[in-house]
Amino acid sequence: MFDKILIANRGEIAIRIIRACRELGIKTVAVYSDADRTSLHVAMADEAYNIGPPPPTESYLSIEKIISVAKRSGADAIHPGYGFLSENHLFAEACEREGIVFIGPSSEAIRLMGDKITARRIAQEARVPLVPGSDGAVSDVEAEVIAKKIGYPVMIKASAGGGGKGMRLVRREEDFKSSLRMARSEARSAFGDDSVYIEKFIERPRHVEIQIIGDAYGNILHLFERECSIQRRHQKVIEEAPSPAISPRTRKRMGEVAVRVAKAVSYRGAGTVEFILDQNENFYFLEMNTRIQVEHPVTEMITGFDIVKWMIRIAAGEKLTLTQEDISIRGHAIECRVYAEDPERNFLPSPGKLEYVRTPGGPGIRDDSSIYSGCEITPFYDPMLSKLIAWADTREEAIKKMRNALREYIVLGVKTNIGFLRRVMENEEFIKGEFDTGFIDRHPELLSPSVDTQNLEPALVAAAVAMKDSTKKEEGKTEQGPVSYWKLFGRKIAVMRNQLI
Amino acid sequence: MMLTFKFRDQIYRVSMEEGDQTEIEIESKRIPLEFRKIDGNFYSIIVEGKSIGAGILRKGRNIQVFIDGDLFEFEAISERERAKAKGGASGTQEIKAPMPSRVVKILKREDEEVEEGEGVIVIEAMKMESELKSPMEGKIREVRVKEGDTVESGVVLVVISPNEASQ
Fold first, then answer.
1. Is the pLDDT of residue A479 over 50?
2. pLDDT per position as a tens digit, B36-81
3. Least confident of A75-84, A195-204, B12-21
4. What CA–CA distance (Å, rounded) separates A225 from A326?
5. Cα-flanking dihedrals φ and ψ of residue A253, to 5°?
6. Sequence-distant (≥ 6) Cβ neighbours of residue A212 within 8 angstroms
7. I need a surface site. Which of A23, A33, A154, A219 has the fewest CB within 10 A?
8. Rounded Cα distance, B15 and B24, in Å
9. Residues of B with CB below 8 A from A412's CB?
């Protein structure tokens, strides 16, 4: 087993990995940019090193800096988390070259699956169903011809894409040119590559994905599916497992197909095979993510399988001790991603200082977050504040738990999507499990609280209390604080050092 | 003490009296009230046996109240401002940068006409592009930025004036 692991990430996932390392008795090394000196992952790790200015390209995306910290600190492995360098095959390659273990698949598997067009070809060879579309990147002219041939609506997608960036839905031929321009421009600024491909758009699709895990000895298991259809701007906000939309038969077939895709690239570590599901339970391969997913906790909750710990064990050369038959689904789990964003302004990010945070709790509630009262949400990184996860015996109970947990959550200082998430948990269609990726667009009423809400009166009372309490504070604000113990402590250390010298 | 709050363009008046006990009057109902700050910005308020747990943050005249997962943003306004607010708007409207961002594309030029809800400018923040739309039908009077500019939150990007016909 490893002695020390460097975590090339920040935020909640860095903390999730630190916790897994602690349980395995492994020391942890954090890296941080100038904007993250006061981030929680830094305080929680055993060692921490600054890797430069806030823009990711100068810190968290710098292969050179991260490898150099790994060597300096004597880390024998690197966990990349999600985002940043996690799906960069050059980074995995650099680790391989330097004799540092990259906790994830081979650089080769990352490279093959990272290119969406190659991934499609591999899936095709593995007899995996595919959505009709262009065979690879296309020129502007080709794009329009293919779009016309497969018929509108079509999707334009960035070849190097992910997370909804560089992606556009086009319903009418006359909108095609402008959408193509937007998609290319977004792809260029997000990935430095503006090549795009075209795909048939499936009406009222669901997004369902299979978690897989493979060891270095060719054993690959699937850990069932996650339903990720509740999306805004093509990015997931609510995920759950199992999916309320598929039959046990489809579940079994989907799992088998996902394992087949993973086997085609001799996959090692945790990965996700994403599918699009139509209204008749037909599913088509979308892409494979060669990293830990944001939404992995829902799978952990229903299977009891600790994915992050197993990623580390597998990277250290351990064999999977379970077989497919050992893994079963118990209960139901839902995850809500809490973001600093404004649902009323098209989910625009809302960076700023979190003046106050109060976190929910209780049986079956898990809060994977990195926030605290007083922490700063900077505009440099993803504005996710927390992943709130609820587990219960049934889906209905899990929804109730989530609804209550969201009512307990308090975040002051920035706008959040907490109220929006709670309203989704109260929505009839969601409760019935009848939804698809267009859910949010079809329910604009969920974006803002109705004005005749029953909480307006209590809120007014609270506002009056705010006015009164702050006036009172200003009156009695002259007393001197107690002697700082930190100062005394500092002096004591200084004195002791002098004696030693 | 008479307090006036604005919430989504609606005015609400709350009167708060202090004797042996704090009392609150909402829409001519007088209710006794008691409150304690219990943790940071978290308050426990009891109104006739009804308990309210709320996160409260005051920044000058802006008050954020967080109850049951919903954020209520109030603006405390004085009597004088209330009278002035009845005056009415001058006609032009501004599109401001909602957060620190970069101008990616300007979709409308000066003197071009726009519909309400039509995209005027594309900005990028946190690696996400978003299109800012015109709040009204009219004509672009002024574009104050150019593509590639980095702007701070609140900076006016575009000024829109009403069409002559509609004036």
1. no
2. 999 889 999 998 888 999 999 999 899 999 998 889 999 998 766 6
3. B12-21
4. 16
5. -65, -45
6. A220, A221, A222, A223, A258, A259, A262, A267, A270, A271, A272, A273
7. A23
8. 6
9. 41, 55-57, 64, 66
Q: Per-residue pLDDT averaged across B118-135, rounded? A: 84
**What gap in Å lies between CA A63 and CA A92, rounded to an integer?**
9
Q: Does A409 lie at the interface with B, CB-CB under 8 angstroms?
A: yes
Q: Which of A73-87, A288-302, B111-125 has the least mean pLDDT?
A: B111-125
B76 with B98, same domain? no
Q: Which among B23, B53, B82 is the end of a domain?
A: B82
Indicate which residues of A carry an active-site annotation.
291
User: How far is the C-alpha of A208 from the C-alpha of A259, rounded, in Å?
Assistant: 15
Lookup: tokens for A158: 């960035």
Fold of A206-447: D-amino Acid Aminotransferase; Chain A, domain 1 (3.30.470)
Check residues B118 and A211 and name the one with the higher pLDDT: A211
**Mean pLDDT of the residues in chain A:** 92
Superfamily holding A132-200:
ATP-grasp fold, A domain (3.30.1490.20)
A–B interface: beta-carbon pairs under 8 A = 162
Q: How far is B107 from chain A (nearest CA, A)?
A: 11
Chain A residues near residue B58 by CB distance under 8 angstroms: 466-467, 470
